[in-house]
Amino acid sequence: MINESLAIDIFTKTHKGDSKFAYAYGLNLDESNNILLNYIELKKSVDLYQLIEDIKEDSSGLIWDALAFTTQGWAAPLSSSDVPPSEHPERKRVSLMSIITSKNNICSVIQMKDSSPLYDKSATGALADSLLSIYPKEKIFYENNN
């Protein structure tokens, strides 16, 4: 599992500020998952879920110790009105980075504008389900009999 200080460090290094794109990064970590050795931007897309699907389909994510996905959006107080967060008078810009390791551990960092980033490891919902579909559940070994 990636700890809080490492997750926030990765967020700080990969977060590009306000952008219309979601980004995917490949991460190389030390054996204990405590140190980021290096990272590279793999792809970007205007749709986070399409980006995750693209990484899953071409298997490019499987060579990395972990993958980080960043995106931005709007947050607003819950209300009984049907006003979308992007149009709510009390809206705030929010940035999110979710990391999945090759062992299917997930953590996230979320930051509201003008606030400190917050670490979370309670991954649930559609985003967590999409991330969990990237790495195989178990390694498959093939025997070459030639």
In short:
The chain is an alpha+beta fold and 146 residues long. 20% of the residues lie in helices and 33% in strands.
Account of the protein in words:
This protein has a 6-stranded antiparallel beta sheet with strand order 2-1-3-4-5-6, sandwiched between helices. The model has no long low-confidence stretch (mean pLDDT 88). It is built from 3 helices and 6 strands. It has 146 residues and is α+β, with helices and mostly antiparallel strands. It has one domain. It has helices spanning 4-14, 48-58, 126-132, and strands spanning 22-29, 36-45, 66-75, 92-101, 106-112, 118-120. The N and C termini lie far apart (39 Å).
Distance between the termini: 39 Å
Radius of gyration: 17 Å
Uncertain stretches? none
Strand arrangement, major sheet: 2-1-3-4-5-6
- What kind of sheet is the major sheet? 6 strands, antiparallel
Helical element count? 3
Order of helices and strands: HEEHEEEEH
Shape: globular
Which SSEs are present, and which pair or pack?
Layout: H1 4-14, E1 22-29, E2 36-45, H2 48-58, E3 66-75, E4 92-101, E5 106-112, E6 118-120, H3 126-132
Annotation keywords:
146 residues, alpha+beta, six-stranded antiparallel beta sheet, 3 helices, 6 strands, globular
